[in-house]
Each structure stands twice: as C-alpha cells, then as structure tokens.
Amino acid sequence: MKVTSEKIEGSRVVLTIEAPASVVDEALDKAYKSVVKRVNVPGFRRGKAPRFILERHVGKDVLYEEAMKEVLPEQYEKAVEETKIEPVSEPEFDEVNFKQGEPLKLKATVYVRPEVKLDDYDELSVPYEVQEVTGEDVDQQISFLRERMARLDPLAEDEALDKGDYAT
What we know:
alpha+beta; elongated; Alpha-Beta Plaits; 17% strand
C-alpha cells in the first residue's frame, strides 16, 4: 500500500491511497460470498449461484458497492496509522478507482486538529482589581446564605409560635 498525505487549508489533510489489485479482487470475492447467501436466484439453491449469473441477476453494482463498504474504511484506517495523523471527522472519499484487476486508488479528505502556535504568552498580563472585603460584607453574605439554606420544620402540637416563625 502506498500513501501520501498533503495538508490543505482549513486544518484538512488529503490522503492519496493506492493498494494492489489483489485487495480489490479479495473484496469482490467476499462481497460475492456475502450477497449470494442473501439473494434467491431462480434455478439455484440459496448460496449456490455462480458469480457471473449472480452479477447478471442483481447487477455488478451491488457487488462493487458491497465490496467498497468493506475496503474503503479498512484502507483508510491503514493510511491513518501509516501517516500518524489524528482525524477529528469522518473522511470524504473522492476519485475512487475501484475496478476488478486494477489497483485501488482513492483520495480521502479529513479534518485534523489545527496546529496552534502560542508566542510570548508568558509576557501577557491580565488586569484585575483587588476588592476590599469588610466585616459587613461577610455578615451580609452569611445572612443571605442562612435564609437561602433554611428549612421549615413542623412544630410539635404543644409548641407555640415564636417571633419569626412561619405558619401555613
């Protein structure tokens, strides 16, 4: 497998992938074995129709589509491992050459993490104001929290209401 990567604008990478023809042929064989088990071809038991008959019955496109569903993600994953990129999105496949007996060629465009360069961030300063906290501010905050967190508990029947109690 041959892989080249090219960085393009917008934090994207284009992977150009080439794989030998044997990859395509093996994928088509697997696709045939998968499809022939699911399709009824008149005159043949399920799973026993020859490939050329199956292709005529369902069309070559079905086999090619089934094979591409398996091969494209597999080859893409190998290319990602080989180039050591860190994709953050699903790939967009372009210019796919997937024909029996020919090498697989495709381009996959994927977003990657942007490269961020920080220059002289140690010299940056953030303006702030020191606020004076008085005892009155502390008392006010404590009384606010006391009222906010207070619970209403029921009184016993023989207890009388005091000043500040609630009655419902």
